[in-house]
Design brief:
single chain, alpha+beta, 4 strands, 35% helix, Double Stranded RNA Binding Domain
Length: 168
């Protein structure tokens, strides 16, 4: 099929004009986690989209600028955003273990509080912030995924399945 460039552009413009923007499968799931969440939203634990999941960043002996904090929130959204409906809050702690002596001294600890499940705590130590965060996030994502899948695999106990005489 040999078409002229004008015919090709008419075909592509007519087919794209009829398409309306559709929502993608991961829309809103890969957004950065929120810095602060309004109090009424906090009262409804879990079942919130990624931009409404609070992420607290705590530092001890380390100075993080706004760019580092934004990087942490963005990476949290990328890795944990798909599980935001099961997450109540996330806390990232960056601690300088050796103080001013240097060396492998940055400890990144990530705690993910899940709705109706035990919390997940993962930590990793490295010389720089980004490698420590990346390794801790990888472990946190893996553990959250396994925990949430384990919950979904558990059978649902229905009231119809129980007998009256059991008294539970």
């Amino acid at each position: 099929m040999n078409r002229t460039p004008a015919a090709r552009s008419r075909i592509s413009s007519s087919s794209s004009a009829s398409r309306e923007p559709t929502r993608t499968r991961n829309a809103g799931k890969r957004e950065p986690l929120a810095d602060q969440v309004p109090r009424p939203v906090k009262r409804t634990a879990g079942r919130a989209p990624a931009p409404l999941t609070p992420a607290n960043i705590r530092v001890d002996g380390v100075t993080l600028d706004a760019e580092d904090r934004a990087y942490i929130r963005r990476r949290l959204g990328e890795k944990l955003g798909k599980y935001a409906s099961s997450i109540e809050r996330v806390t990232v702690r960056v601690h300088d273990v050796n103080g001013p002596r240097g060396g492998i001294d940055l400890l990144c600890r990530i705690k993910v509080v899940l709705s109706g499940l035990p919390s997940v705590v993962v930590e990793h130590q490295a010389a720089l912030l980004k490698p420590a965060l990346t390794r801790a996030l990888t472990g946190a994502e893996r553990t959250v995924r396994q925990t949430v899948q384990r919950k979904r695999m558990r059978p649902i106990r229905s009231a119809a399945g129980r007998e009256v005489g059991q008294g539970r």
